[in-house]
UniProtKB/TrEMBL annotation:
InterPro entries: GPCR-Ligand_Int. Gene3D superfamilies: Rhodopsin 7-helix transmembrane proteins. PANTHER family: FMRFAMIDE RECEPTOR (PTHR46641:SF2), FMRFAMIDE RECEPTOR-RELATED (PTHR46641). It comes from Dreissena polymorpha (Zebra mussel). Keywords: Membrane, Transmembrane, Transmembrane helix. This is G-protein coupled receptors family 1 profile domain-containing protein. The chain crosses the membrane at residues 20-40, 61-81, 87-105.
Length: 131
């Protein structure tokens, strides 16, 4: 019985932390930082080359990426550090819901695709990705 307590006290918490927070957050952070840096480089290249035509502002995408990282930290950290109570677990479940809401409010392309998907489902459309 002591071996079980040792496993639960010392090993399980580290495995749980690694799977819930320790692996996903660095991947999310590295991926988002890479996207934001590439967007900034692209924006500065366009400004240096004086390309005006279809130049888009990349700040909203950068803000979206940063807000997703911050949201992940605030919603997953309480559970990953061992604060396992009902509120902390509920907040961690809301992470996916908050992500969806952020995408709906910030992305016009996402809204358009969501509308077309829902319209297609409402009309019993059989081919989803028809161009």
């Amino acid at each position: 019985m002591k071996e079980y307590y040792d496993l639960n006290d010392y090993v399980y918490h580290w495995i749980d932390f690694t799977l819930i927070f320790g692996t996903p957050f660095p991947l999310l952070l590295i991926g988002n930082v890479t996207v934001v840096v590439q967007l900034a480089r692209s924006r500065s290249r366009r400004q240096r080359m004086n390309i005006s035509g279809q130049a888009r502002d990349t700040r909203p995408v950068s803000i979206l990426m940063i807000s997703l990282c911050v949201l992940f930290v605030f919603t997953i950290t309480p559970v990953s550090v061992g604060m396992v109570n009902d509120v902390a677990v509920l907040v961690s479940y809301f992470n996916a819901t908050f992500n969806f809401v952020i995408y709906v409010f910030s992305g016009s392309k996402f809204r358009a695709e969501l509308r077309s998907l829902l319209f297609c489902m409402a009309t019993q459309c059989t081919s989803l990705f028809v161009s």
